[in-house]
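Exercise 7.
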Amino acid sequence: MSKGIERARPAQHSRQGTLYNSSTVDTGLRNRVAIVAASSQGIGRATAEAFAAEGCRVAMCARNAQTLQAAAEHIGKQHSAEIFTQALDVIDAEAVHRFVDAVVSKFGGVDICVTNAGGPPAKGFLAASLEEWRKAVDLNFLSTVYFAREVIPHMQRKRWGRIITITSITTKQPVADLVLSNAVRAAVVGLVKSLANEFGKDGILVNNVGPGYTATDRLKELARTRSAASGKSEKEISEGWSADAPLKRLGEPREVADAIVWLASERASYVTGQTVLVDGGLYKGL
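Solution. The predicted structure, written as tokens, is:
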């Protein structure tokens, strides 16, 4: 990011996560209410922490209640932030409805919604069952629909809102062994464009962030799958991914979080309907 939009930079790393310094530039996010889905670990957790560092009130959800609570307690203590949590599965439309209602009841509204869900299993086309296709649609597409349906009316009332989806570089460049993700996440981009067109008049910006190879548990799973199929070690697989990117390393979750916070901020007030890749230059297209 350029100096003009630079916000918090990590001060140090710990086993609990990245510790952020206070912001140096006002992003217009203080006291905004930010929902971050699947935020108990990985990119979701880094995003929740980045919003907390900006002074947002943060609502976190994930399936594992224990991991979610541990993440929330760490973030709340580190940034003196108001954190609300609720354990749920994002494929459950009614659970998403109850969660958003609870967030509005506690914080008085919703300004930012970051949709996120764990990727479908690494599979080739013939290896993927019809049930896995249905689950991928539920998890990685319909979950975004559920959140959008719930938060848009609240954003319309304020005439201000940000919806940011987290997908993958697969929306631009299909990845081997990820046929489920390649297909289903592309549908999210179509939804993002449609929502941006329909609700721009209401002051709602809708964008997508596509991470490249990022150091998360999801990437470790893919490395195991590739290792088993190729006979190469997981370390060799990971080093190969790093070599493919012009920056010659994997991304960090906090780097994806920084892009998400920028899109939510007033610094990106004329950006909507876009996919921003955070991939170290891995995508080779124009």
